Amino acid sequence: MRALLDELALPVMAAPMFLVSGPDLVVAAGRAGIVGAFPTQNCRTAEELDRWLATITEGLTVDGTTLPWAVNLVTHRTNGRLAEDLALVAKYRPPLVVTALGSPKPVLETVHAYGGAVIADVADLAMARKAAAAGADGLACISAGAGGHTGMLSPFAFTAAVREFFDGLLIIGGGISDGFGVAGAIAAGADLVYMGTSFLASQESLAVADYKQMVVDCSLEDLIVSAGITGTPASWLRPSLISHGIDPDALDDVERERDYQAGGDAVRRWKDLWAAGQGIGAVTDIRPVGEIVADLAEQYQRAAARLTPYRSLEGSTHA
């Protein structure tokens, strides 16, 4: 799995975003030198997923070698299509499989059989320990500042705590919006950085035009974290709530059972109500994934140059 990292131009994964990530984004990310990913639930049927996986595999195969990419599988018992999707994963063999909303156990045997690695999405230390004990090869630690369903821990605190008991692949995500933040996360002990909002408004994103423009136009002050939409804390764009008659400041008074689907009462979650993370301020226009990655790489190199050694404390009066 470490060899996979050596194939990248930048230690970044374009996070799998519900109703946003598709084949064009995954292929563009891979060809730009980062890991592209998408949730299988973005496909309405297994047949459509088959077509997507074929497109991605073809688009990322260069001189007989397939560039790194990932799929995201919901492993919760409510996912009635898990067996079908997992069979297609075995057919197309993505190097990384990210599990969400459940244990990684249901996919381990299948993915390990073809030499792939299983990464478990986790939002707190209890989940991280369970996933590690279940045999996950890596952990994707969702931290404070992430878009959509978000964590509550600082990315740096989360990384340090997980590294005390886990030496596998560690992905950290939450509010990291530029190459400087990527460099900081890697220096702190992460192997890859999840970045979602940075690619939400890319040309290759499946997000509708109004959604992309809202991400460009909004700032940190336009976000609200609330459990009032899905029953679980998530980071929402205030203007998208207001435009559908929802008062963002009254959401704390709403009690909901957990429901992560795209449906809703009067409006549809995720389709009508839009999410974004705290990296939103770095998104200033709609442009290709390749340009976004090039800017991230340039910032990363500038950050690395700043990490010059300070003088040794040996012999210092402060030692």
Unreliable runs:
none
Name of the CATH architecture of the domain at 2-206: Alpha-Beta Barrel
Beta-strand fraction estimate = 15-25%
CATH class of the domain at 2-206: Alpha Beta
* Oligomeric composition of the shown chains: single chain
Number of helices: 12
Structural class: alpha/beta
- The CATH topology name of the domain at 2-206 reads TIM Barrel
Mean pLDDT: 91
Give the N-terminus to C-terminus distance in angstroms.
40 Å
Strand order, sheet with most strands: 1-2-5-6-7-8-10-11
Helix content: 25-40%
Number of strands: 13
- Write out the CATH superfamily name of the domain at 2-206: Aldolase class I
Largest pleated sheet: 8 strands, parallel, barrel
EC number: 1.13.12.-
InterPro entries: Aldolase_TIM, NMO
Family: Belongs to the nitronate monooxygenase family. NMO class I subfamily.
GO molecular function: oxidoreductase activity
Describe it for me?
Its EC number is 1.13.12.-. Pfam families: NMO (PF03060). With 319 residues, this protein is α/β, with parallel strands linked by helices. It has a domain at 2-206: Aldolase class I (TIM Barrel). It is 36% helix and 17% strand. It has twelve helices and 13 strands. The protein has helices spanning 2-6, 23-32, 46-59, 82-92, 105-113, 125-134, 155-163, 179-188, 197-200, 209-217, 238-242, 289-306, and strands spanning 12-14, 35-39, 61-62, 65-66, 69-74, 96-100, 117-122, 138-142, 148-149, 169-173, 192-195, 223-226, 234-237. The strands form three sheets. The chain has an eight-stranded parallel β-barrel, surrounded by six helices. The chain has a three-stranded antiparallel sheet with strand order 9-13-12. The radius of gyration is 19 Å and the shape is globular. The termini are far apart. The relative contact order is 0.13.
